[in-house]
Structures are given as C-alpha cells and as structure tokens.
Design brief:
5-stranded mixed β-sheet
Length: about 550
C-alpha cells in the first residue's frame, strides 16, 4: 500500500480550488482569482517582450507596468479583505487600468494592443454587481483615460487625435454594459434560487417533522396499519402490523406472499381465497369495513377486523390503499360466550314453557269443566306462553343461523292490513297516524306467520320510536318478480353509525337507551334472519330527527 506524497496532497488541494464554485471560496481567494487572468496575461506579455522585443524591457513605463502588476497581485494575496469594507477590493481593477495605461505607452512601438488588457478589469468591475452605474461609467472612463491622458501629457493634439481612439472606450463601454446586464440577471436568478432553496428547506423540514410525527403516531397506535401501492407492494407498515404479519406467517417461510399467509374465514378453519383476503381486496381498489378474519394457527390464532380505504393520485386514479387491522379476539370470544349463554338459557326456558302450554291446552280442551271467566284468563296465559316460546325458538334459530320457513300462497296485502289493524290501538295511544298504501291483492309464495312476524315487528318499532306522535306509512307493491314492503315513520331516526349496527343482536340506539322505550334489541336481527331465509333482503334509510324507512324485498 502506497502513501500519498506531499506533491499528491498539494495537487489535490489545487484541484479542489478550481472544482469549487466561485462563491464558495473566501473573499481573499475570490479577489486573487479575479486578478489572476490579468496577471497571467502580463507574464505572457513580459515573455514575448523578452523574446522578441528586449528593448521594451528597458522602457521605464513598461517596467512600471510589470512592477505595479506584481505589486497588485501581492496586495490581493496579502490584504485581509474580509476585515475591510466589502467594496474595498474594487480599488484593484481601477488601479489595473492605471497600470495598463503605463503598459500601452511603454510598449507602443513593440507590443501593440496591450491596452486591450483593460477588458479584464472592466469585466471584474461590472461582474462584481456592486455599484452597477459606477462600474459602467468606469468601463468607459478608464479606457478613455488610457488613450487620452498621454495626449494631454504631451500637450499637442488635434480634434482628430481625440476622436480617433474613441472606438476603443466605446467598445469597452459596450462590454461593460453587457456584463452588467448579465450579472444583474444572474444575481436575480441567484436570489430567486436562494428563495426557492429556503422554501424547499422549510418544506423539507416541515415534511421531516410530519414524517416523525406520523411515525410516532403509527408506532403508538394499538392497530396494525399497512399501506400498499397500486402494485401491491408494502410502502408503510407499523410495529403492530409487523407483529400481525409475523402471526400469519407460516413456519419455515420467512417471506410468504399474500396467498401463503395463514388467513382463515370466520369458522377459524377454512382458508380464505386470495381474492377475499383483506390486503388483496385493498389492492384491487375495494373499500370495506370490519371484515372479520382469523390469523395464525392452533392456540396462537387470533381474530382481526380489517378495514380498507383506497388512495388516489392527482388525476383521481387508484394509487394504493391503506388497510387497518384490529385485534378483536377478546370481543369475539365474549360475543361467543354471550351467544352460548343465551342459547343455554333459551334451552332451559323451552322445556317449562312447553309443559305450561301442554297443561293449559289440556284444561282448555275440557268444554264443560271450566268457567268462561277463567277460560278467558287461560287464553291470555296460552297466547303469551306461545309468544314467549316463539321468541325462545327464534333466539335459538338466530344463534344457529337457521330459521325454518314453510312458504305457501299468501295475500301479502291482507297480511299488511291485519298487522296494521292489530297495531291501531297502540298507535292511537301514542298519537301516531297509521296509513296503508297497498293494492287490493298482492300474491306471494311466503311463510305467512313469519312474514307477519316481520311486519308486526317493523310496524311496532315505527310506533314505539315515534314518542312524539307522527305518521307511519305501510306500503307494498310488486316489481320484477319480487314483492316489496315498506314501513316509514317520522320518528327519532338513527345516525349512520347506529344504522350500521341496527341488525346486530341486542343493539339499541343511544337515544333509545336513554329513554323509557322498552326492548331488548332482538326484533330486527330476527326479522332480518326471516327475510333472508325467504331469499330476500331488508334495508333501512334513516336520518336523526327525520324518521326511518325499512324496505323488505322477497321473491314473489
């Protein structure tokens, strides 16, 4: 291994001097570099005079020129210009003009044209950007003095002698003006660039702060967050999501693709197809909320809900998506325990209720052994016991996800009229006006008792959630082999968040919980299960304070 020599180090330093931008040097170095072209030209002139015109070196004016140039270069090197007033270095190009005047007279008969060297101090003055008007004036006055002062010193001259050399200072003036204009333009550009540079630095600093804040927030979130671009590549992932990804990574596979991750359906055992996996759906541009999946295997398996929102670029085109994973294992386990508890209690209720109904029916079957007064009371007992048994059965059916229906030909219009007639006493008591908009007949192949249960529940809710009175309209019609039933009210209404949870078991809106309106939050889930068992759908539209509209759609 060879070590750099002193010459190598010096050479590198010299290269660095010329590789730097001019404005990156110190003021002293900039003054030296500005004087250096003229000093080089002076050395070449002296060499030419020594080689071809040795008599010129004996001319005292030419020697004053050489000595003054050496002296001025020494001043450029020695003087600490940064300690003096900033424009003080402009004395050097002005003195250069005086020195060039001596050169012109000292070599007038040998080295003609030495006065052209004045272009260098003219450029220096005008390119400095300082006192531009004075610099332009000096670019004319200096060369003019070079050609006129000798005439005045000799004392004999004519008008022609004065006008003959005027082209030279005019030419220098043109050069000075051009250099000044270019310099001022460059100064303006430099200032504009500096302003842009400052703005970019501020923007970069603000962006860096925002990035640090974003990273801090992302790392502090109890949620897993991953951002993907339009091609599905991860561009951002926080600590919690890295843990979630590690949970879904198969053993022995350090870099699995999306289809290889351990992602299962709600049954915890069925692997989700690739096109139904949250990240894949997000890459395809889907927008979804709270998709329930299970990640991992065996005892480490955990439940997550995934939500995705797409990102778009300035042209509105899909540019990626952000997916958020939330660990809901404890919540899912709690809901499962609650469902198991409800199912167990319902099972325990079914046996005594069945026994009660059996004995009540045995008593009612005796036409002579029962007083009519007691028969009416037993009828009430039987009707409520049947209702309670139906509710228990529905709870078990909802728990298992199975609602048994027995479709047959039914006049849906008649079912609606019967449901409304049954609800009229409650509506009158609540100050609610009931109205029906149905055709005379509306045939459909449905389970009449189940559909009546749905209608009774929707009409009952419309009355119940209109505590200040109002209007309830029940309408029905047929369209494209489907029967539609709509129940609209002008009651309390629901927020968007409450609408999203309306068909969840045991859910009750905040305003309802704070009121004295009775209920357990099972009517809508059971109604939804009945409608879906028919192959239909039930939807709702609502605004707080404006009312709610439920629409049931079933095949005719």
């Amino acid at each position: 291994m060879t070590h750099p020599t002193t010459w190598d180090i010096g050479e590198k330093k010299r290269l660095l001097v010329f590789q730097r931008s001019f404005h990156e040097h110190t003021l002293r170095m900039r003054v030296v570099l500005s004087q250096l072209p003229l000093s080089v030209c002076v050395c070449i002139s002296a060499l030419l005079a020594w080689l071809f015109f040795p008599a010129t070196l004996e001319n005292p004016l030419f020697l004053i020129f050489l000595a003054s140039q050496a002296f001025l270069l020494a001043l450029c090197v020695i003087i600490p210009w940064h300690r003096l007033p900033f424009p003080s270095f402009l004395t050097i190009p002005i003195l250069d003009m005086v020195s060039i005047g001596f050169a012109r007279e000292g070599a007038l008969e040998s080295l003609t044209g030495l006065s052209v060297l004045v272009v260098l101090p003219v450029i220096w003055l005008c390119a400095s950007g300082l006192y531009p008007r004075l610099a332009i004036a000096m670019s004319f006055i200096g060369p003019l003095g070079i050609v006129w002062v000798p005439l005045f010193v000799r004392g004999s001259f004519t008008e022609q002698d004065l006008t003959k050399p005027l082209l030279f200072p005019i030419l220098m003036l043109g050069i000075g003006v051009s250099v000044s204009v270019l310099t001022l333009s460059m100064v303006r550009q430099q200032r504009a660039l500096e302003q842009k540079d400052d703005a970019l630095k501020e923007a970069l600093e603000a962006s860096t702060k925002q990035e640090r804040l974003l990273n801090t927030v992302m790392e502090a979130l109890p949620l897993g967050v991953v951002a993907v671009d339009g091609d599905g590549h991860d561009i951002l992932m926080n600590r919690r999501q890295r843990q979630t990804h590690a949970l879904a990574t198969p053993p022995g596979n350090d870099d699995p693709n999306e289809s290889e991750l351990l992602v299962f359906d709600t049954d915890k055992t069925t692997p989700l197809p690739s096109d139904r996996r949250p990240v894949r759906r997000a890459v395809l541009g889907e927008r979804f909320t709270d998709q329930l999946v299970w990640l991992g295997a065996d005892k480490e398996q955990r439940a997550f809900t995934a939500s995705a929102r797409p990102m778009v670029d300035d042209d509105g085109k899909f540019a990626g998506s952000v997916v958020v994973f939330s660990d809901v294992t404890e919540l899912v386990n709690a809901l499962t325990a609650k469902d198991d508890f409800v199912a167990n209690v319902s099972h325990e209720f079914r046996t005594p209720l069945t026994s009660i109904l059996g004995y009540v029916e045995l008593i009612l079957d005796d036409p002579t052994g029962l007083d009519p007064k007691y028969r009416r009371q037993l009828d009430i007992v039987r009707r409520n016991a049947e209702r309670l048994l139906t509710l228990v059965s529905d709870l078990l059916a909802v728990r298992s996800g199975q609602i048994v229906i027995q479709p047959h030909a039914v006049d849906v219009a008649e079912l609606i009229r019967g449901s409304v007639n049954s609800a009229e006493p409650r509506a009158a008591k609540a100050g609610v006006r009931l109205s029906v908009e149905v055709p005379d007949a509306l045939e459909a192949h449905v389970d009449s008792s189940r559909l009546s249960q749905v209608l009774d529940n929707l009409v009952s809710n419309a009355i119940k959630y209109s505590p200040d009175g109002g209007d309830v309209v029940v309408a029905a019609w047929e369209d494209d082999d489907h029967v539609f039933c709509r129940v609209s009210d002008t009651g309390m209404g629901m927020t968007e968040e409450e609408q999203a949870e309306a068909f969840t078991k045991f859910f009750r809106a905040g305003a309802v919980r704070n009121s004295a309106i009775p209920g357990v939050g099972l009517g809508l889930p059971i109604s939804k299960a009945i409608v879906e068992a028919h192959g239909g759908t039930i939807t709702l539209e609502s605004e707080p304070g404006q009312g709610t509209t439920f629409t049931v759609k079933v095949p005719a």
